[in-house]
Amino acid sequence: MIEKTEHTDSSSSASSPVAVFCDFDGTISLQDVGNRLFHHFSDGKSDDPVAKWLSDQIDSRQCLIEEAAVMREVTEADLHDFIDRFEIDRAFPAFVDFCRTRKWPLYILSDGLDVYIDRLLKRHGLAGLPVFSNRAVVENGRLRLDWPWIDNECDRCANCKGFQIRRLRTPGQTAVYIGDGKSDLCALPEADMILAKGFLADHCRQNGIDFVPFNDFAEITDILKDSPLTLR
Ligand SMILES: [Mg+2]
Ligand SMILES: [Zn+2]
Predict the structure, then answer these.
(1) How many angstroms separate the alpha carbon of residue 50 from the centre of ligand 2?
(2) Which-ligand-closest: CA of 161?
(3) Alpha carbon distance 57, 63 (integer Å)
(4) Residues 124 and 210 grouped into a single domain
(5) Strand ranges for the chain from DSSP E
Protein backbone atom coordinates (compact mmCIF):
# COMPACT_ATOMS: atom_id res chain seq x y z
CA MET A 1 0.00 0.00 0.00
CA ILE A 2 1.40 3.33 -1.07
CA GLU A 3 1.02 6.17 1.38
CA LYS A 4 -1.18 9.01 0.31
CA THR A 5 1.27 11.51 -1.09
CA GLU A 6 1.16 15.24 -1.45
CA HIS A 7 3.09 16.69 -4.35
CA THR A 8 1.75 20.17 -4.23
CA ASP A 9 4.39 21.56 -1.87
CA SER A 10 5.62 24.31 -4.16
CA SER A 11 8.95 24.87 -2.38
CA SER A 12 10.22 21.31 -2.96
CA SER A 13 8.57 21.07 -6.43
CA ALA A 14 10.14 24.30 -7.61
CA SER A 15 13.65 23.20 -6.66
CA SER A 16 13.34 19.81 -8.33
CA PRO A 17 15.32 19.46 -11.59
CA VAL A 18 12.55 17.33 -13.12
CA ALA A 19 8.76 17.58 -13.31
CA VAL A 20 6.68 14.68 -14.59
CA PHE A 21 3.41 15.28 -16.45
CA CYS A 22 1.19 12.32 -17.13
CA ASP A 23 -1.99 11.60 -19.08
CA PHE A 24 -4.70 9.56 -17.34
CA ASP A 25 -6.94 7.70 -19.82
CA GLY A 26 -5.16 4.76 -21.43
CA THR A 27 -1.89 5.75 -19.74
CA ILE A 28 -2.49 5.47 -15.98
CA SER A 29 -5.81 3.65 -16.51
CA LEU A 30 -5.49 0.57 -18.69
CA GLN A 31 -8.49 1.60 -20.80
CA ASP A 32 -9.87 4.95 -21.93
CA VAL A 33 -12.37 5.21 -19.08
CA GLY A 34 -14.03 8.41 -20.33
CA ASN A 35 -14.56 6.95 -23.76
CA ARG A 36 -15.96 3.67 -22.35
CA LEU A 37 -18.20 5.52 -19.90
CA PHE A 38 -19.88 7.67 -22.55
CA HIS A 39 -20.09 4.70 -24.93
CA HIS A 40 -21.75 2.55 -22.26
CA PHE A 41 -24.29 5.10 -21.04
CA SER A 42 -25.21 6.27 -24.55
CA ASP A 43 -25.45 2.75 -26.07
CA GLY A 44 -22.71 3.67 -28.51
CA LYS A 45 -24.17 7.01 -29.62
CA SER A 46 -21.13 8.84 -28.26
CA ASP A 47 -18.99 7.24 -30.98
CA ASP A 48 -20.20 9.89 -33.48
CA PRO A 49 -18.86 12.95 -31.63
CA VAL A 50 -15.65 11.06 -30.89
CA ALA A 51 -15.19 10.36 -34.61
CA LYS A 52 -15.74 14.08 -35.34
CA TRP A 53 -13.15 14.98 -32.68
CA LEU A 54 -10.64 12.48 -34.04
CA SER A 55 -10.98 14.03 -37.50
CA ASP A 56 -10.65 17.60 -36.13
CA GLN A 57 -14.21 18.64 -36.97
CA ILE A 58 -14.93 19.62 -33.35
CA ASP A 59 -12.76 20.52 -30.36
CA SER A 60 -12.61 18.40 -27.22
CA ARG A 61 -15.04 20.58 -25.27
CA GLN A 62 -17.68 20.26 -27.97
CA CYS A 63 -16.97 16.53 -28.12
CA LEU A 64 -17.58 16.10 -24.37
CA ILE A 65 -20.74 18.22 -24.56
CA GLU A 66 -22.11 16.07 -27.39
CA GLU A 67 -21.09 12.84 -25.64
CA ALA A 68 -22.87 13.94 -22.46
CA ALA A 69 -25.94 15.00 -24.44
CA VAL A 70 -26.54 11.51 -25.86
CA MET A 71 -26.20 9.77 -22.48
CA ARG A 72 -29.24 8.19 -20.93
CA GLU A 73 -30.28 9.32 -17.45
CA VAL A 74 -27.87 8.14 -14.75
CA THR A 75 -27.45 8.32 -11.01
CA GLU A 76 -24.13 8.91 -9.31
CA ALA A 77 -24.30 5.28 -8.11
CA ASP A 78 -24.67 4.06 -11.73
CA LEU A 79 -21.51 5.95 -12.66
CA HIS A 80 -19.58 4.71 -9.63
CA ASP A 81 -20.54 1.08 -10.30
CA PHE A 82 -19.32 1.43 -13.85
CA ILE A 83 -16.10 3.25 -12.93
CA ASP A 84 -15.26 0.63 -10.32
CA ARG A 85 -14.80 -1.96 -13.08
CA PHE A 86 -11.65 -0.26 -14.33
CA GLU A 87 -8.06 -0.85 -13.32
CA ILE A 88 -4.99 1.32 -13.35
CA ASP A 89 -1.52 0.21 -14.43
CA ARG A 90 -0.28 -2.10 -11.70
CA ALA A 91 3.10 -0.42 -11.53
CA PHE A 92 1.73 3.13 -11.32
CA PRO A 93 1.64 3.27 -7.48
CA ALA A 94 5.31 2.23 -7.39
CA PHE A 95 6.06 4.91 -10.00
CA VAL A 96 4.39 7.51 -7.75
CA ASP A 97 6.66 6.30 -4.98
CA PHE A 98 9.71 6.51 -7.25
CA CYS A 99 8.88 10.15 -8.14
CA ARG A 100 8.39 10.93 -4.48
CA THR A 101 11.77 9.41 -3.60
CA ARG A 102 13.42 11.59 -6.26
CA LYS A 103 11.33 14.57 -5.06
CA TRP A 104 9.99 15.06 -8.60
CA PRO A 105 6.55 16.65 -8.76
CA LEU A 106 4.10 14.42 -10.65
CA TYR A 107 1.10 16.09 -12.26
CA ILE A 108 -1.81 14.27 -13.88
CA LEU A 109 -3.13 16.22 -16.88
CA SER A 110 -6.37 15.09 -18.49
CA ASP A 111 -8.79 16.45 -21.05
CA GLY A 112 -11.27 13.97 -19.53
CA LEU A 113 -13.30 14.27 -16.34
CA ASP A 114 -12.53 14.33 -12.63
CA VAL A 115 -15.55 12.13 -11.86
CA TYR A 116 -13.74 8.91 -12.78
CA ILE A 117 -10.10 10.02 -12.38
CA ASP A 118 -10.55 10.96 -8.71
CA ARG A 119 -12.50 7.80 -7.94
CA LEU A 120 -9.98 5.46 -9.56
CA LEU A 121 -6.99 7.15 -7.94
CA LYS A 122 -8.70 7.11 -4.54
CA ARG A 123 -9.39 3.38 -4.84
CA HIS A 124 -5.67 2.85 -5.32
CA GLY A 125 -4.63 5.04 -2.38
CA LEU A 126 -3.47 7.88 -4.64
CA ALA A 127 -6.02 10.56 -3.80
CA GLY A 128 -3.33 13.11 -2.91
CA LEU A 129 -1.90 13.46 -6.42
CA PRO A 130 -2.47 16.78 -8.18
CA VAL A 131 -4.95 16.30 -11.03
CA PHE A 132 -5.83 18.94 -13.62
CA SER A 133 -8.88 17.98 -15.68
CA ASN A 134 -12.36 19.03 -16.73
CA ARG A 135 -15.12 18.47 -14.18
CA ALA A 136 -18.45 16.67 -14.12
CA VAL A 137 -21.22 16.12 -11.60
CA VAL A 138 -24.50 14.24 -11.88
CA GLU A 139 -27.44 16.62 -11.62
CA ASN A 140 -31.03 15.42 -12.08
CA GLY A 141 -29.86 12.39 -14.03
CA ARG A 142 -27.66 14.41 -16.38
CA LEU A 143 -23.94 14.92 -16.39
CA ARG A 144 -23.22 18.61 -15.82
CA LEU A 145 -19.83 19.54 -17.25
CA ASP A 146 -17.59 22.31 -16.00
CA TRP A 147 -14.43 23.75 -17.57
CA PRO A 148 -12.01 25.17 -15.01
CA TRP A 149 -9.18 25.40 -17.58
CA ILE A 150 -11.06 26.46 -20.70
CA ASP A 151 -9.41 29.90 -20.86
CA ASN A 152 -6.17 28.53 -22.30
CA GLU A 153 -5.84 30.09 -25.76
CA CYS A 154 -6.01 26.67 -27.42
CA ASP A 155 -8.72 25.95 -29.97
CA ARG A 156 -8.26 22.18 -29.72
CA CYS A 157 -8.51 21.41 -26.00
CA ALA A 158 -10.81 22.10 -23.06
CA ASN A 159 -7.90 21.47 -20.68
CA CYS A 160 -4.80 22.07 -22.80
CA LYS A 161 -1.82 20.06 -21.63
CA GLY A 162 0.62 22.43 -23.30
CA PHE A 163 -0.92 25.29 -21.33
CA GLN A 164 -0.67 23.29 -18.09
CA ILE A 165 3.01 22.44 -18.60
CA ARG A 166 3.86 26.08 -19.37
CA ARG A 167 1.97 27.09 -16.22
CA LEU A 168 3.28 24.42 -13.84
CA ARG A 169 6.94 23.91 -14.73
CA THR A 170 9.53 26.18 -13.19
CA PRO A 171 12.40 27.72 -15.21
CA GLY A 172 15.12 25.22 -16.02
CA GLN A 173 13.04 22.23 -14.96
CA THR A 174 13.17 19.21 -17.29
CA ALA A 175 9.60 18.36 -18.29
CA VAL A 176 8.92 14.66 -18.79
CA TYR A 177 5.64 13.87 -20.55
CA ILE A 178 3.92 10.48 -20.55
CA GLY A 179 0.91 9.81 -22.77
CA ASP A 180 -0.86 7.73 -25.38
CA GLY A 181 -3.39 9.76 -27.34
CA LYS A 182 -4.62 12.67 -29.38
CA SER A 183 -5.33 14.78 -26.29
CA ASP A 184 -1.57 14.77 -25.58
CA LEU A 185 -0.52 16.54 -28.80
CA CYS A 186 -0.26 20.05 -27.29
CA ALA A 187 2.11 18.69 -24.61
CA LEU A 188 4.70 17.55 -27.16
CA PRO A 189 6.35 20.92 -27.98
CA GLU A 190 6.59 21.71 -24.25
CA ALA A 191 8.24 18.46 -23.16
CA ASP A 192 12.00 17.81 -22.94
CA MET A 193 11.42 14.08 -22.87
CA ILE A 194 8.39 12.27 -24.29
CA LEU A 195 7.35 8.76 -23.34
CA ALA A 196 4.65 7.54 -25.69
CA LYS A 197 2.59 4.54 -26.68
CA GLY A 198 -0.35 3.92 -29.01
CA PHE A 199 -1.62 6.83 -31.11
CA LEU A 200 0.91 9.24 -29.59
CA ALA A 201 3.86 6.97 -30.42
CA ASP A 202 2.59 6.63 -34.02
CA HIS A 203 2.18 10.41 -34.25
CA CYS A 204 5.74 10.99 -32.99
CA ARG A 205 7.13 8.39 -35.41
CA GLN A 206 5.27 9.89 -38.39
CA ASN A 207 6.34 13.43 -37.55
CA GLY A 208 9.97 12.79 -36.64
CA ILE A 209 9.46 13.74 -32.98
CA ASP A 210 11.93 12.12 -30.55
CA PHE A 211 10.23 9.87 -28.03
CA VAL A 212 10.82 6.81 -25.91
CA PRO A 213 8.31 3.99 -26.37
CA PHE A 214 6.84 2.25 -23.32
CA ASN A 215 4.27 -0.38 -22.48
CA ASP A 216 3.72 0.19 -18.77
CA PHE A 217 4.93 2.08 -15.70
CA ALA A 218 7.42 -0.60 -14.72
CA GLU A 219 9.25 0.21 -17.96
CA ILE A 220 8.87 3.95 -17.41
CA THR A 221 10.44 3.66 -13.96
CA ASP A 222 13.40 1.74 -15.43
CA ILE A 223 13.80 4.26 -18.26
CA LEU A 224 13.73 7.32 -15.98
CA LYS A 225 15.97 5.75 -13.33
CA ASP A 226 18.91 5.73 -15.74
CA SER A 227 18.08 8.53 -18.16
CA PRO A 228 20.83 11.18 -18.51
CA LEU A 229 18.06 13.79 -18.89
CA THR A 230 16.85 13.15 -15.37
CA LEU A 231 20.29 12.67 -13.76
CA ARG A 232 21.45 16.21 -13.40
MG1 LIG B 1 -4.87 8.98 -23.06
ZN1 LIG C 1 -4.25 22.33 -26.60
Answers:
(1) 17
(2) 2
(3) 10
(4) yes
(5) 18-22, 106-113, 131-139, 142-146, 174-179, 193-196, 212-213
Distance 177 CA to ligand 1 centre (A): 12
Rounded to the nearest whole angstrom, what is the distance from the C-alpha of residue 183 to the centroid of ligand 1?
Answer: 7
The per-residue pLDDT string of the chain (232 residues; one tens digit each, 9 = 90 and over) reads 343 344 444 445 668 899 999 999 999 999 999 999 999 999 999 999 999 999 999 999 999 999 999 999 999 999 999 999 999 999 999 999 999 999 999 999 999 999 999 999 999 999 999 999 999 999 999 999 999 999 778 999 999 999 999 999 999 999 999 999 999 999 999 999 999 999 999 999 999 999 999 999 999 999 999 887 765 5
Range(s) of the domain holding residue 44: 35-83
pTM for the predicted model, two decimal places: 0.92
Quote the ligand 1 centre to 14 CA distance (angstroms). Answer: 26
Task: Examine the domain organization and report whether 19 and 43 are in the same domain.
Answer: no
